[in-house]
Amino acid sequence: MEFWEVVERRRSVRAFTDQPVEAEKLQRILEAANAAPSAGNLQAYEIIKVKDRATLQALVEAAWGQEFIAQAPVALVFCADARRSAGRYGSRGANLYCLQDATIACAYAQLAATALGLATVWVGAYDDEAVSRVLRLGSHLRPVAILPIGYAAESPAKTPRRPLQDLVRDFPQKSTKG
Q1: pTM over 0.90
Q2: Per-residue pLDDT tens digits for 14-54
Q3: Number of domains the chain contains
Q4: For residue 143, is the peptide bond before it cis, meaning its omega torsion is within 30 degrees of 0?
Q5: Residue 41 belongs to a domain with what CATH number?
Q6: SS (H, E, C) the chain
Q7: Position 17 in a domain
C-alpha cells in the first residue's frame, strides 16, 4: 500500500473479528516500531505484547471498561523507559524524550498495521497504575499507549479534521498593518 493510502485508510476501529493476527504481520509491525526515530537513538521505550485473554481482559478493567481491547487478538502496550533516557538527557529525557520515543514507535506500529490490512485503535484512557500492575512493569516504565490490533469487524467513517488554516500558523505572523 502506498504511504498516502495508508494515512487515508487508518481509522480508529473498536470492533475486531476473532481472526488471529498472523505472526509474520505482527513481526512486521514490531519491526516498524523498532525503526521509529528516537532521541539520541536510545529507543527509550519497551513494547509489551499481550495475547493472553485473561491479561487482555485485565487491561480492559485498567482502561475503564473499554471492551474492544479484549476483543482484539493482540494488544501492544508501549511504555516509556525514563531510566534509559535520563542517563543521557537527565530530567528532560525522563520526563519528555522517553514519552516522545514511545509515542513515535506506537504511531509507526499503527501505520504499519494499516498497511498490512489490519485495524487498530490508540488507547490512552486508562489508569497508569492499574496497567503497570497488570503488566508487572518496573517503576522506570510508564505506559503511554495501548494498541489493540486485529481484523476490523466495522468500517468507521472518516472523522472530520481541523482545516489546515486553523491548525498551522506561520511564524513570524504576517503583519496586518499596511
Answers
A1: yes
A2: 999 999 999 999 999 999 999 999 999 999 999 999 999 99
A3: 1
A4: no
A5: 3.40.109.10
A6: CCHHHHHHHCCECCCECCCCCCHHHHHHHHHHHHCCCCHHHCCCEEEEEECCHHHHHHHHHHCCCCCHHHHCCEEEEEEEEHHHHHHHHHHHHHHHHHHHHHHHHHHHHHHHHHHCCCEECCECCCCHHHHHHHHCCCCCEEEEEEEEEECECCCCCCCCCCCHHHHCCCCCCCCCCC
A7: yes
